[in-house]
């Protein structure tokens, strides 16, 4: 479920990276959504209740059985601590953006679902610095019907499991600045569980983490790109030296616009379906990555937000925003999943820029700054 069932942006935050259909991963003992399988239509696969607007933020979106004041189980503890983390990340990023804006504030919408769960969407539109900045959190309880679970297992079985409950929580954000020299940023961190009753045959409890932070400038300033990637590497290296090179390549591969044969931007880190490490370690790793967003991004925006630019610079930024729209509407698993399963539409589409541009057969002249950006999107580089 941005990457979960939100984004990178369905069900509010699973931004960048959510999944269309369930199948069994040969590498990881987990369920995850992936490319569509020819079975029943997707809109039948997952059941999610309609959201109800709320006038104020609740202390928690968890069901009473998951709130650690009522339960001390390890599963509930991870759910509660992950919700605490994503709400703190939302607060810190929004505070940092409002400090840069120096006046304009986020508009907040809060909603819940009758059976548990809910979310908070915050959007700042047409500010002093940001054209559009969205930061969403959501907590989702749903049910996968038996046919979705059988698709998840990837093999026929005589056993007929009942509906498989799931839990998903995540934070997702896309930040689109006005100045073409200031880069767009996307991040998404999420946690997912299936939670079938023990007497349901063939449906064990599974969990995994996913997420990432990626960087989409219209113009390359090497110091900025190196700074951004260095912060990602520092967060990764605190946990495993293999994480940065592995997740950097995963990011380049995920944000690939197949019909253009180019990447959406200059990468960062991306991971999904992670459950082959200690759960506490992955919770701490996700927290470290979310806490790295502000130091990785805000100093770059501060440096670039007031640079002078021409109409040509703005037009190129708008063309690159067009690529952003193409990726999110055609390939992003969170966005496409949300659109097909009745997620909250304003949260799903909050990732899209306020404005974008398409020109017929536009090709930047070789050697120009625009060409250098396009070349780096076609041929991903190692920046550090």
UniProtKB/TrEMBL annotation:
Q: Does the keyword Plastid apply?
A: yes
Per UniProt, subcellular location reads as: Plastid, Chloroplast
Name of one Pfam family that matches? Coprogen_oxidas
Q: Give the organism the record lists.
A: Eruca vesicaria subsp. sativa
A cellular component term from Gene Ontology for this protein is:
chloroplast
From what superkingdom does this record's organism come?
Eukaryota
Supply the alphabetized keyword list.
Answer: Chlorophyll biosynthesis, Chloroplast, Heme biosynthesis, Oxidoreductase, Plastid, Porphyrin biosynthesis, Transit peptide
PROSITE patterns named in the record = COPROGEN_OXIDASE
GO MF annotations for this entry? coproporphyrinogen oxidase activity
For this protein, the record's SUPFAM superfamilies field holds:
Coproporphyrinogen III oxidase
Enzyme Commission number(s): 1.3.3.3
Q: What is this protein called?
A: coproporphyrinogen oxidase
Subunit record text: Homodimer.
Reaction catalysed by this chain?
A: coproporphyrinogen III + O2 + 2 H(+) = protoporphyrinogen IX + 2 CO2 + 2 H2O
